[in-house]
Amino acid sequence: MLVFIVAYNAEKTITQVLTRIPNALAAFDTEVLIIDDASQDRTFETGEAVRRAGAFPFNLTVLVNPVNQGYGGNQKLGFLYAIENGFDYVALIHGDGQYAPEALPDLLLPLMRGEADAVFGSRMMRTLDAIKGGMPLYKYVGNRLLTAYQNLVLGARLSEFHSGYRIYSTAALRQIPFDLNTNVFHFDTEIIIQLLLAGFRIVEKPIPTYYGDEICYVNGMRYAWDVLRVSTIAKLQSYNLVHRRNFDVRPDSKRNAYYTPKLEFESPHSLAVEEVKTGETVLDIGCAGGYLARRLKATAGKTIGVDKYPPVDSSSLDEFILHDLDQVPFPRTLADVDLVLLLDVIEHLKSPEGFVSALRDAAESGSNVRIVVSTGNVGFVVPRLMLMFGQFNYGKRGILDLTHTRLFTFASLRRLFEESGFAVESVRGIPAPVPLVVHNKVLARLLISINQLLIGIARALFAYQIYMRVKPLPTLGTLLTASRTHSRARAEAIPRAVAEIS
Question: What is the CA radius of gyration of the chain?
């Protein structure tokens, strides 16, 4: 175990903090690390004197940053030290003595029992203990209000987000990009958000509160604003409205099972299901996990899937073609296909123009195939407002998906197909997928109804997605063949016509 002491101008308190570390920790192969963050006093020299005296019961390492890294930056260095040196746990305490080192063995227990990935010492678990320990009333109230807001937006149940007394499992630290967090005081909030989003277990234990004559370097208003800001950003990221790399800690568990089926409300998926007539052959391009094929099974006569990766469940597909859609030509003729589904695929391709042209080539002469295509509408009101305020944030899902290579408006999608030899038969605006984020069914239905009403007023502004039905026009080769055939028939009829005239 590593006991990591962050220190800044702690010359007067650092020795006392060291002597208060319980000898019981020797059973855990404990090392103590002090990192002096370029203090303006003799914090480093004082710590180094303790080390050189040789009476300290633990292995002691004392480092000093040549340039101040900030509270968060200093933590990053200590956590990296713990990881690189193979420690199982790293305990964070402060060099000013505000957090009691005597509580370390008790805080360590949940980790040793395998009950937690991080343990936080909380000053708020016992009512008014913090006030009795000298916490100023304004800090107590601010702590409570900020914690309540953070619990609300992050779906947590912590008694306190703002204690600096923590023990982390280094196994958990290895899996979160703490190095991308801020270097200032709300680093503590950002690392909690990362742990919560990654699904790690946090356990709180009560600790005593002590406020002495230490100097506080935190600007309270700035800190509160930063905490509110990053907590709100994390919530918005869950709605795919923004994206911050440090909060992108939820790896997709299944390849090619990326998208959530949207079949229970108005969406390209539900509309596509309505397009299928009994007994038709349906080609699902970009079939992903095969979830749409399962719904089509009762209606379609035959369902064919095309994707770059094998589906998680292929039982509902009568035929599957493994194909990278960025490669031409298209791997199958459409001569026997009645309906092609191209849902939320076109925006992922390197060359939508090349793909659409290949799709047209795959449609045989005289084919009556219908094609439905959907994509996000980059002209939707939310991206427009974000752009107005200088934001254009890509995310894991939504219109500005990180994997999107091309963005479309109603006009540009129509132009793509018309210029590639298709006739656009109908165009429709789709409301936002509200039920994916609003789980109250009554409220979700109300919001969708409002969105549908607004789409009727200004489709280009209020449609979240574009849903278009297109049909391939005959190719020039087909038209020329038809002209030749028709001409021969007309030519053969000429002698008879001449004879009749004579």
Answer: 32
